[in-house]
Each structure stands twice: as structure tokens, then as C-alpha cells.
Amino acid sequence: MIACSIARGASRRICVHLARSSKATPNFLARPLSSTALCANKKHDPKPDPNEAATTNAPSGALGDHEGKFARTDKTVQIHYPSDREMPRQPVVQGRGGMHFKRTLASFSLENKVSMVTGGARGLGLVMAQGLVASGSDLAIVDLNKAEAEEAAAKLIEQFGKENPGIEKMPNVTAHYADVANPVSVNEALADVLAKHTKIDHLVTSAGFTENFDAIHYPFERMQKLWGVNVDGTYLFATGVAKHLMERKAPGSMVMIGSMSGSIVNVPQPQAPYNAAKAAVRHLASSLAVEWAGHDIRVNCISPGYMLTALTRKILDENPQLRDKWISLIPVGKMGTPEDLMGAVTFLLSDASKYITGADLRVDGGYTLT
Ligand SMILES: NC(=O)c1ccc[n+]([C@@H]2O[C@H](COP(=O)([O-])OP(=O)(O)OC[C@H]3O[C@@H](n4cnc5c(N)ncnc54)[C@H](O)[C@@H]3O)[C@@H](O)[C@H]2O)c1
């Protein structure tokens, strides 16, 4: 970085020097030393410098497509988070659990643990929850939509039974109501989970949602709701579980579901409050990781990229241009599936990641690298 700025400073000085000096340019400087040296000849060049013309100030179409257009938000893209009635249903994934016929490290096992997943009735939360059960954990699904959470719990058990015929002990999977943004509701849910499971070892905070409005027109109450669910909800469950672990003097670990939007700005859909909320989730994980490190409680973050859930499928089926644009920006050239998070969440909750805390694991097909 420093070397780079020194080099830039040096070439700028050369450029200024050349602009002021006489016409007799010494031979060793006849070829430009850097692209900035081109400016020495600018006055004499009747053609405009194409690199200078290619700025965001160039008129649209001056050099083909309008410069910067693929890296901008577009306020005409508006997506509302649907109501529960309009929400597409998510099937329980098939054939991913089951006994381990292939050898793997024992430290990945979550046997004899109790995991709680907020927002676990559907979407990424439900599939991650299945991964945890397949890895040996009991499970408490917590969701605003209790009916769907109960349905998901029943299907998950049914699927597990099919994949593990003759198993002696079925996992204990329960469903609970909570509005994660409401402290009273969170405390009631925690009490309910403890009544059914007696302990909680692991937490995954997946309850969250996004909406798209440009910042000037973002409805204030929607923004508050978004931050309430994504940020307050994560904080309230994390502190509630940490308090329980500290009282038990037990080790534990948590995974907060952030998003790549906490590190980059998505285009073309505008979503400033969501991006800021997910940046908050990521840094909350780091901050709590430090605060609770002495209690043997690990806190990590998973930042998914664009994932194909029932809801994103519906949005993209209705907006194929948006799908093409998103996929064009992902280095691996395809969206992720919820199953891609199963291993990541199991790893970060289990002893396989015993020395990892405060990390942000991006599961984004390389999106944030470019
Ligand atoms: N799908 C993606 O492409 C993607 C990408 C990056 C991050 N994420 C994040 O992953 C998480 C899960 O997203 P998803 O795509 O599975 O969403 P989803 O809408 O499919 O599922 C979210 C779940 O959270 C529940 N929920 C919503 N508000 C709640 C509240 N106040 N209290 C309790 N539960 C509530 C919903 O009922 C639902 O079951 C979110 O935090 C989201 O921001 C998703």
C-alpha cells in the first residue's frame, strides 16, 4: 500500500515536471513511465483520452454501456418481504442426513448437544437445523410462525427416521414460538426450550429478512422492523443463551447468520438498512466473541452469498433479469443452495473449530473476492 502510494507520488511528480519542462524531452522519458505520464502530452493530442472520457461523468453511451452501470443500485428494483400467507413452502431436504458410512473426524459430532435455531421453520434456518440433527444434536426450532415450525419439526423427524432405519434413539426435535425482536417473547421462548430440553449448548440465529427500497423512500417503520429482527433479535438470543451457559458454567458456541451484504454493497437492488444490519451482526459476533472468550463461549458468523431458498426462487422466477445479473457477479457462476451451509454451521458449532472465535465465514461462491 505504502509502496504503491510512493510510486504514484513519484509518477505524479514526473508528470508535473514534464508538463513544465521544455519541448526537448530527454530520450529516457520518451516512453511514458506510467499511465499518469500520458498527461504530459495531453495538450498536444487532439483526440480525447479514452480513459479520461470513461468516467461516471461521461454521457450515457459515450463509450458503449454507461460507465459504472453494472456497479450501481437501481431504485426501480423494489422487493417487499412477503406476508406469511404469500410465503412459498420449503421442503425438508432429502437424503442428506443419516448414519456416517464414511469415516470423519469425531470432533465434528454434535452428539449429546442441544442446538437452538431461530428462524428455523423454513429457508436456510431449516436446512442448517437438519444438518445439526444429522450431526447428532437435539434441536429446538424457534420461529414467529409456530405452526410451520411444528410442521418442519415433524417432517424433519420423519425424514431422519427414513434415513436411519432401526435407530435406537430418535433425536428430540421441538418447535417454539418467538418474536426475536421482542425481549419478553425471547425470554419466554428460552424458558420454553429449557423446559423441553433442560439445557442449550448451541445457538444459530437465522431469523432475519431483507427488503428493497431506495434509501430516500425506505419506509421508516419497515427499517426499524428490519433492524429489530436482524440485529436486536440476534443480540437478545445471544445474550439469553450466554447467560444460561454462564449459569451452568458450561462451554458453548453460537453462529450468527450475517450476509455477504455486511461486507459489500449488493447491486442492483438497493438495501442500505439490510447491509448495515448485517455489518452489525458480523461485528456483534466479533465483539461478543471477545467478551465471552473467558467463559469458553465461542461466537462466529456465517455470511452467506446469494442462496436459493423457496423465497429467493420465487423472487428470481418473477425477476429473471435480476437472477442473470446476480449470477454474472458470482465467480463460481451459480447461486448457493441451503445445503451448502450444513457443513459450515456444523463445523463452527462443533469442537472441530475449538480455537476459532469471532470469525466471519463467507459462504458466497467467491462473490466478495471481486
Ligand atoms: N437467502 C439468502 O440468499 C440469504 C443470503 C444471505 C443471508 N441470508 C440471511 O439468512 C437468514 C435466513 O434467511 P432465509 O433466506 O432463510 O429467509 P426465510 O424468509 O426463508 O426464513 C426466515 C425465517 O425467519 C422467521 N422470522 C422472520 N421474522 C421473525 C421474527 N421476528 N421472529 C422469529 N422468527 C422470524 C420466518 O418466519 C422464517 O421462518 C436471514 O438472516 C437472512 O438475512 C439469506
Automatic annotation (TrEMBL):
- The entry's keywords: NADP, Oxidoreductase
| Name of the molecule in the record | Glucose/ribitol dehydrogenase
GO BP, one example? mannitol metabolic process
Tell me the PANTHER family matching this sequence.
BENZIL REDUCTASE, DEHYDROGENASE ARBD, PUTATIVE-RELATED
What Pfam family is a match, any one?
adh_short_C2
Whose protein is this, by species? Answer: Penicillium capsulatum
The UniProt similarity line reads: Belongs to the short-chain dehydrogenases/reductases (SDR) family.
Sequence segments annotated as region (Disordered): 39-69
InterPro entries (alphabetical): NAD(P)-bd_dom_sf, Sc_DH/Rdtase_CS, SDR_fam
Instruction: Write down the SUPFAM superfamilies for this protein, in alphabetical order.
Output: NAD(P)-binding Rossmann-fold domains
Q: Which terms in the Gene Ontology molecular function aspect does this entry carry?
A: mannitol 2-dehydrogenase (NADP+) activity; oxidoreductase activity, acting on NAD(P)H, oxygen as acceptor
